[in-house]
Amino acid sequence: MQRIRRDDTVHVIRGRERGKQGQVHEVDTAKNRILVTGINMVKRHQRQQDERTPAGIIEKEAPIHTSNVKLVCSACEQPVRVRFRVRTDGVKVRVCKSCGQDID
Ligand SMILES: [Zn+2]
């Protein structure tokens, strides 16, 4: 069960990008790392490999650890901590610890 999932909005709480928010567009569940749109950009010097990848210096996101972000609750729009509960239909959902709303 992942606290942070694809398409979540997260709030960065550690490091250079502290205080910024962005949308998760990739999750590495094994490493607990995520890519967040516009967060932790690094410059990469890249050689052209095919038509789709441009040559030169490109900026792309570097993965950040999920412990360095908080989920932004869709209901109260605050960076919150998450707990889990099992609904009556047996589905496990994430719950905002702040406002108590289901997030999924
Ligand atoms: Zn909330």
Structural notes for this entry:
It is built from no helices and ten strands. It has a domain at 9-49 and 57-76: SH3 type barrels. It is elongated. Helix content is 0%, strand content 44%. The chain has strands spanning 9-12, 21-28, 33-36, 41-46, 56-61, 64-65, 69-72, 79-80, 82-86, 92-96. With 104 residues, it is mainly β. The mean pLDDT is 94. Residues 73, 75-76, 80, 96, 98-99, 101 line the site of zinc ion.
SSE layout and pairing:
Blueprint (H helix, E strand, L loop, with lengths): L8 E4 L8 E8 L4 E4 L4 E6 L9 E6 L2 E2 L3 E4 L6 E2 L1 E5 L5 E5 L8
Antiparallel strand pairs: 1-2, 1-7, 2-3, 3-6, 4-5, 7-8, 9-10
The site of zinc ion has 8 residues, from loops.
List key phrases describing it.
6-stranded antiparallel β-sheet; 104 residues; 10 strands; SH3 type barrels; two-stranded antiparallel ribbon; mainly beta; binds zinc ion; 0% helix; 44% strand; single chain
